[in-house]
Here is the input.
Amino acid sequence: DYAAEGTAAHLLCEYKLKIALGLRAVDPTPDLTYYDQEMEECADGYVAYILELIEKAKESCADPVILSEQRLDYSKYAQDGFGTGDCVIAGDGLLYIVDYKHGQGVLVEAERNPQMMLYGLGALEIFDCLFDIGTVSMTIYQPRRNNISTYTTAKEDLYRWGREELKPKAELAYSGGGQFLCGEWCQFCKAKHECRARAEHNMALAQYDFKLPPLLEDSEVENVLSKIGLLISWANDIKAYALQAALGGKEWKGWKLVEGRSIRKYKNEDEVAKVVYAAGYDPYEKRLKGITHMEKSLGKTRFSELLGSLVEKPPGKPTLAPASDKRPAINTAKEDFEEEI
Here is the structure.
């Protein structure tokens, strides 16, 4: 479902960008299953951002080339490798590649992002002989996470990465060699349920014999913290895989399919309302729309105009995050006490 929603968002972005550039395009919205007001606003924001980049490109090149949903071939470095650049802007001095991400589950950064660097190499294959390109700018546009992340590098540095890092690893992987590396990317892998390397990586935590936290050394707790997110994700994937297999007829020793918890629901809401009204009662309750629902109804701009001063965001509940997390650290009770002294 998430992939289908992302595909719909890309189709809408492509359509709106072509219209903004004065090109002919067919409105896809009548055929979009996942279309809604939020998607409309995300696409509008994406187009506005692209138009800003085009104006910036015109500062060094009077007539830059703008391509939407362009196939980018980087098979020179990774056999059979290619991708699709949501927007590519090329001109003298600078090459822009923008990738739209509609998902909100995983924050995607552009800094040395391998996918974006691959796209950069693919775009250079097309435009490096046509323009005097010095730098390549790669941007992740992720509106539902309020994330516009850009990584800019010298063209020669990108070529060097392609020759010295990418190509040897790609050749090794293509031949079936190399090492399996587990990480957050496993959630997108088709082999995530059966991968032996992923299982061994996560089962390594069994070395602690599931001791209670106070009985572990600080270094052991830190090691568990670094892996526990991947362990939970892996465990959930195993459960989902086992359930789907069981629904298909697979029998797991010691397990059986049963009905889960069920919630009562009305067979026909209109009929329920009529019966309750007839009995002299009001079947409806009136309540204020939630912030997300209200913002979707009004649109982000109008919501901000009308309710911006009436909405507050209290501090979030403290949570542990890796040191690489961009959020600032909060003071602990110990630090607050020391500051008072």
